[in-house]
Amino acid sequence: MNDTPRTNAVLTAILETHGHVGFLNCPPAWVAFARELERELNAANARIKRLEEAGDAIVDHNIGCGCGQDGPCRACRMACEAWYKAKEDKL
Predict the structure, then answer these.
(1) What is 14-69 written as a DSSP string?
(2) With contact defined as beta carbons under 8 Å apart, do 56 and 86 qualify?
(3) Stronger pLDDT, 11 or 74, i.e. the higher one
(4) For residue 68, which phi and psi values (nearest 5 degrees)?
């Protein structure tokens, strides 16, 4: 599996448009930098997904938590509210 599909798509478009990919229409340093940024983006997105899954699991636990007399305690409710706000704030 290719780990930089977006960069490869741009290189393919350059190849199809110009008939070649070379130093003048696509410097190697730019390609290397684009691949590095795409890998970092992919890693960050994977981390966000894992954090969201963990946060959702905590919320699921807190909602069912019986630590308070009439349901989740104040701390659990506040944690859930903070999690929902954090999820809403993502770009």
Answers:
(1) HHHHHS---TTTS-HHHHHHHHHHHHHHHHHHHHHHHHHHHHHHHHHHHHT---BT
(2) no
(3) 11
(4) -90, 165
For the segment 53-78, what is each residue's pLDDT rounded down to a tens digit? 888 887 777 766 667 667 777 777 78
The phi-psi region of residue 28 (left if phi > 0; otherwise alpha if psi is between -120 and 50; otherwise beta) is alpha
Residue-level pLDDT at 1: 61
Q: What is the dihedral of CA 20, 21, 22, 27, to 10 degrees?
A: 160
Q: Could you tell me which of 29, 30, 1 has the C-alpha nearest to residue 10? A: 30
The CA angle 40-42-48, to the nearest 5 degrees, is: 100
Which residues have a Cβ under 8 Å from the Cβ of 46 and sit 6 or more positions away?
none
